[in-house]
Each structure stands twice: as C-alpha cells, then as structure tokens.
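Researcher: Here's the sequence for the chain we discussed earlier.
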Amino acid sequence: MKKKLKSRLALIDDNELILTCDNISDNINSICKILSESAVKNSSVPINRRKRTGKPRKKPWAPEIASAAKSSKIHHAKWKAAGKPTNPENEIYKNNKNSKKKLRSLQRRLEATNRNNKYQELMELNERNDKGFYKLVRKQRDPSNPSGSSLIFKDNTLNDQIEITEAFAQYFEELSTPCENVNFDNDHFTNVKRDITSLTELFKHSKNHNIPVTTTEEVKKTVLSFKNGKSPDEENITAEHVKFGGQTLISILTNIINFIFQNLDIPSLLKSGIACPILKKGKKENGSKLLQKNCHHYVHWKNCREATSSKQPRFNKQTTK
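Model: Thanks. This is the structure I predict for it:
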C-alpha cells in the first residue's frame, strides 16, 4: 500500500506545486481523494459470510393472541366461502368482523405493554451500564420486534418514522444555529465578530509576516503523534492515511502549512468538523427526552487535515493574535 500510495502522491510534485488562495482547497481535496482511494483499493477483502435466505423468525405470540388469530382465520375462511357477504345483519359477516376486531385489540394492547416495559427498563438502567443500554438498542432494532418506535419531541409524541426523522433533523439544525436561541447574547456575538475583523485587518496590514518556516521534521513529528483507530472525518480520512503517506506526503503537507503561514489565509476546507451532541454532566434521562433539554452543547471533532496544521505551535500562536 505504501509503495502505491507514494507513487500516486509523486504525481503531485511538491517542488512544483503552485498554491494560491483560490486553488489550495482543490489541491487538498485531490490529496484526500488519493489517500481515500488508495486505502480502499489496498484494503483486505472481507470474508463472505453465509447469508440467511429465509425470513427472520418471529417470536411466538401469547396464547391469547394465538387463539384469537386462529379464530380470525377460521371466520375469515367461512366468510370467504360464503361469497363474502356485506350485509351487517349476516351472522357470518358479524363473526368475521368481531374476530378481527378482537385480534387487533389484543395486538395493540400487547404492543403498548411491551413499549411501556421498554421505557421502564430504560429509566431504571444504570447510567454506566453500557452493556444493558446496547442490549436494549439491539432489541429495538430486531426485525422480529413487534413493538413500534415513538419519540417525544417538544411535548409531541411521534410514532411515524418520517416524523421522527424530521424531528431529529430539526433538532440538530437548531443545535448548530445557536444565534436563534432566545438566551443567546447577540450583542456580544456582534462585538466579537467586529473585534475579530479589526484584529485580522490590523495583523494583515502590519506586515508581520515573519513567521518561521515549518520544517518537514516538525510536520512528521506531528503526524506520528496522531492516535490510531479513530473515526474518519467527513472526507473519510484517518490518521493512518496520513501516516502511510510517507515522506512524500509530509513534504506536500509542509508546503501547504507554510503557504497558510505566509498568506495568513486558512482554507474553509480546514475549518470544517463534525458536531457531536453530548449530555450535560450529571444528567440521566431516558432516550426519548434526549432531544428536549440535555444536549445544549456539543463537541466539535476536528478533521484530520485541520489537526495536522493546528498542532503546529506557531499556528496556534499566530491564530490567537
């Protein structure tokens, strides 16, 4: 993998790499694409496991429901054999209708009982009992699970899958837009933006561009300090991708970092990240109340490209001036 990756990266000659503020994002995207495609092509082929061809086995009904289902089938067969009468006074028609009504009532009652038991079990679950929590998650995702899913969002109970999806989308949209919060200090936010703009203009026109050049050894040391086994960023890049790039990738990254230092321009591509909501400290609520009040703040996970540059000491010093 290392040889193939280095050969592809060699096509981007770092000595002739002409960077501008307009094309630096495109160059970084090209590097990410090479790293991602090389990893996919050289990854080990997964073992084809035997797939189940039959339908998932359903759990047996309670004796009362099984008896009602059998009775409903018998009455439906008699109604069908009688020519499907629709007269409300017909005895066969009434028996078929009543048997179906009884079966559906028992099914809804069982579903409500299972749903309440699930919520009660979730409420009584210990906060640090991860095993029990994931056991409940697997049980809920089981195709044979007859109970439906519901979610309480803004005092409304949602049972439809589309409504639940829209509720999640609305919640995360509100979470990522703090200025729409009624408790948000817009005056302070405006003052901070004005200060940032003033300081940026002052720094650019002060001709203070004497930032020391970053060496390949510094970038290499930074890359090797990354932890393995972490989740990929939105470009599907992990620390392992950067480490396997070798000296060729280190040289390219060094040129990109030095370009940022010299031009005082950080590409928007390096400012992106993944927002992950977290619970408030000491809070323990059930899953249905998660969207209501617990996630008022979130963790911003840096992408792997941003971490490469932001770990440079001089980068931190200059961006805080």
